[in-house]
Amino acid sequence: MFNLRKRIKAAAEAARAWRDPEYPARAGAVEETLRARNAFTEEAMAFAVNQQMALLTEEALAAWIRNRRAATPASVGTLNAGNVPLAGLQDFLAVVLTGHRYLGTVSSKSPALLPAFVRDVRRFAPDVEAAFASLPDLLARADALVATGSDETIASLRARLALPPDRCLLRGRSFAVAALDGAERADAYERLAEDMLLHEGFGCRNVAVLWAPRGLSPDGLLDAIARFRGVFPAHEGTPGRLAMQRALLEAAGASHAYGEGLEFLLSRGEPEPQPPGHLRWVEYDDLAEADAWLAERPVQLVVAEERVQKRLAFAGLRVLPGEAQRPALAWRPDGVDTVDFLSAL
Amino acid sequence: MTIDRVIREFTDVGGAAAFDEMAAAALAYQYARTAAYRRYCDALGTPAARRALAPRSRNAAPAGAPVSSRQPAFVSPAGLPVFLPVAAFKQAAVTAFPPEEAEKIFESSGTGSGLRSRHYVRDVSMYERALAANFARVFGTGPLLFALCLPGYAEQGASSSLAYMADFLLRRFGAAGSGSVLGAPERLRRLAEQSAKEDIPLLLFGAAFGLLDLAETASFSLPSHAIVVETGGMKTRRREMSRAQLHGRLREGFGVSSVCSEYGMCELLGSCYAPEGGVFYPPPWMRYWIVDPARPFEPLEEGREGALALLDLANLYSASALLTEDRAVRRGDGFEVLGRLAGAELRGCNFLLEDV
User: Fold this and answer.
1) C-alpha dihedral over B27, B29, B31, B34, to 10 degrees?
2) Which residue in B51, B240, B245 is closest to A152 by CB distance?
3) How many CB pairs under 8 A join A and B?
4) Nearest CB to B44; choose among A206, A241, A244
5) Which of A17, A188, B154, B299 is the most buried (most CB within 10 A)?
6) How far is B50 from chain A (nearest CA, A)?
7) ipTM > 0.90 (yes/no)
8) Domain boundaries, chain B
9) Domains along chain A?
């Protein structure tokens, strides 16, 4: 018998245990994740786990779910990207707290964190039905699907799915954008550095393109990035990824700046998202140029000071500097509420 | 090996040693004359860049291994050419000559991002020799009854390398009556009848979504010896689909037993054909590698997916060694293109279909 209060309590209990970095399940999962082929650093992983676990209190979970609940429990397949630590946690919680059965995939890039947390939740609430499966197995067994992917991956999935469209929540590619007005202070730049580089530029909440008023010097931001890298050192693979990017900018004679050890790369040019860790600095004469551009792109969120936000017509999620990597429990990827989707199944 | 000899004989290159010799000459020529390529190689050749790009795997050479001073800047420490990302064609004039002397400028169709690649072609006859030799080695010298179906490319005009290629092949190998069947299934039916009557093989050549539209509206089968060649462009106006799904629909729609594929791009003057099954085989003047897109300096082992890197001698006046944005895997002597590496994939906002 589905008991929401019991499940919420189990999730909150597990989260409470996970707030301790020495907690064996967490420490073991972190160690295993660091050995995997990914771009996670110990520091960024600790940040992500602490940030997300801090959100999972009984009160917050209850306020998020409210009375939304599945009329008929289904086996919900969720494809977990593994591009940032604990990706897929919100989907897992949404599935089990609305009364569905959870069936997830494990990404080789992040093989341990989510499975270990799920195990702990089930330890506190054994009636939670949650398992991990291979993709073919998942696609064969799932009654509904939640997935995030590139346009191509989503198209490929669509073609393979036997499920009706209203039972699939497919999230396309997206990225985050920052907008400046030139009046930002040093602390705002420091928070922006986190928004851009925390997970080495990976993830759809990562700022990839920054709009700045023409003539604004990027020096303040570059200083902040250098300070950020003192606290969150780059992953050992980052300089390698950026070396080719920098060489390409050299080939094109494009203006760019980079850290001494290639821990970051910033370039001026067309408003196009670059590969992870490479921020594109775009100048505007009128903020309306940014707005027009935003309207045409798959932008997950815009980072800007409140006064700049007020000047933007962008209808999607707007957050303050320093909030991009700190998603709220109830955040809605692509503007779609996962709990609403699941409770309507 | 002189550059003049490469220009004269590249389509007749015989064997790996001769290819290596021509490739070395071409790369040295481009390093000396193609400024964008030289700047790219030089930026990757600094000790800091080499350290950053050194392999990190357990079996690889130690990070920061010394680089031989005799090794040219266009050769990676592992001996592969330094591959220029095709994105360079969007951002710079990748030419070994003054761009204003180009006989032709090909542009990409501009799908995806707004920027278009531009390929300045110094010597169109080299391109045509590559096209003709490659086509003849796969489909013979004809004559063939060409039916072209290239929606959108005609609008792109003279800047479309695909339209140029199709038109050139039609003029070179086409029988009387060949022409466009775009949006005209009736014209295709007449060509099919002519093919059967005159015993001239029909070659239906077109972009994926154009062929699909045609297959869905045609109410007749093509002759059994008809050849269908799709040139990619899997992003249809209605939805995307895999190459295998597309071929299945085309086989069914046209009543043929197999569908060929052509792999090419405006940045590349050579092209590859997959006679069937989606496995592409490069012509003798091209070589390919599957590499880690983040460290494209040594080939990945057989069976691993990676970025497709190519060396095309026909690209003599721009850059021969190119890193594409296509995800591919080696299949015997050929390669299969699995999709794109661009956009979200590079940003990591996706999952990999690891279990399939």
Assistant:
1) -120
2) B240
3) 166
4) A244
5) A188
6) 8
7) no
8) 3-122+285-345, 124-278
9) 4-173 (3.40.605.10), 175-319 (3.40.309.10)
